[in-house]
Amino acid sequence: MTDILERARVKVLDDGEGLSYDELVEVLQLPTDQIPALLQLAHDVRMKHCGPEVEVEGIISLKTGGCPEDCHFCSQSGQFTSPVRSVWLDIPQLVKAAEETAATGATEFCIVAAVRGPDERLMSQVRDGIAAIRAAVDINVACSLGMLTQEQVDDLKAMGVHRYNHNLEAARSYFPSVVTTHSYEERWDTCEMVRESGMELCCGGLVGMGESLEQRAELASQLAELDPHEVPLNFLNPRPGTPFGDQPIMESDDALRTIAAFRLAMPRTVLRYAGGRELTLGDLGTRDGLLGGINAVIVGNYLTTLGRAADADLELLSELKMPIKELAKTL
Amino acid sequence: MTGTAAYCGHCGREIGSDPADARGDEHAACRRRLEMEPPRYCARCARRMKVQVTPTGWSAECVAHGVLSR
Questions:
Q1: Is A83 close to B48, i.e. CB distance below 8 A?
Q2: How far apart are the first and last CA of chain B?
């Protein structure tokens, strides 16, 4: 076993402390033949500090496309020549999606809108949507509506929003290469307001966007500093018409190293498989990640692309003897 | 895409418009992508469709040719 794995075993597994930036760089540089040992250590850390349960979530796009921001990975930006058209979901369809999500055993249903931040029309739609969902189905409601004001944070908390998602997306040093219409600091400020409100903070990012290994370690360190309840980890799915549309698909070994590194940076967080895993890791890699630090999944489809069939993921969790976290344990 | 499609649901280009069609593989990459994402263009008229993805399915609406869903 290499030195970094020995040190990580003591520091993270035994003492429950996350790895530093320099240590994460070492992890991300481990040779391919060390990946099985790395994944085993990350799995041991997850099992000791989080347990065997897996949190399952479904997501839905309430407002698709037409976003004024220029996040270079996103097909929903109105600034690119993406084929994605603007569309709004109505409340009966929103409730139906929540019911379908709950039927999979998911405990979390996240309402997402492609916006810089919510205006009054969107806040009103969210308010009505949450009330309708709560009247129809027993599931935690999360939201992802972009950057918030303090008043909006307070409103969402009063609506009963359980968790709010706002990703850092990239390391601070790489962020200007990914987004130019708003700053890393603006994202950070929204995250801090959410955390201080008492809502659970969900904050992660994407990898495979052309960043360096050091910038992947930097993102993990910055997320650890923010200390969110949940970290969704996305792998770039290059979308036609976007500035990152011609990026190569991330190598699966790099994706697995990244999963393990994020777990070793944040031993107690909910680390969720989010978009792009089907393309980057396939079926076998999905299994490897669940045995390498991941303890949450987005089930079914994503916002504009399709995911693995929910049944396939649920069967895999059953085979791996990883029980789905029950609703009562998420409150 | 269906057997009678005039346009590719992924890229919106006319089926058979490229020489590569003679080898039958012009839209092979598009077909692979359509296993992991809904069509964005109407196969009958190539209009961009309004697409809504849900956790368990999707629907795609062409203003001229109605709604596809799965």
A1: yes
A2: 13
For chain A, the maximum distance between any two Cα atoms, rounded to a whole number of angstroms, is: 56
Of B41, B51, B55, the CB nearest to A101: B55
Interchain proximity A301–B53, CB inside 8 Å: yes
Report whether A85 contacts A137 (CB < 8 A). Answer: no
For residue A303, list chain B residues with Cβ-Cβ distance below 8 A.
Answer: 53
What DSSP designation does B67 have? E
Are B10 and B4 in contact, with CB atoms under 8 Å apart?
no
DSSP letters spanning A139-206: -EEEEE-SS--HHHHHHHHHTT--EEE---BS-TTTGGGT-SSS-HHHHHHHHHHHHHHTSEEE--EE
The CA distance from A69 to the nearest CA of chain B, in Å, is 20
Q: What is the pLDDT along chain A (331 residues), one digit of tens a residue?
A: 459 999 999 999 999 999 999 999 999 999 999 999 999 999 999 999 999 999 999 999 999 999 999 999 999 999 999 999 999 999 999 999 999 999 999 999 999 999 999 999 999 999 999 999 999 999 999 999 999 999 999 999 999 999 999 999 999 999 999 999 999 999 999 999 999 999 999 999 999 999 999 999 999 999 999 999 999 999 999 999 999 999 999 999 999 999 999 999 999 999 999 999 999 999 888 999 999 999 999 999 999 999 998 999 999 999 999 999 986 666 5
Of B35, B37, B52, the CB nearest to A87: B52
Q: What is the pTM of this model?
A: 0.94
Nearest to A16 by CA among A220, A266, A207: A266
Based on its alpha-carbon atoms, the radius of gyration of chain B, rounded to whole angstroms, reads 12
Residues from chain A contacting residue B37 (CB–CB below 8 Å): 304-306
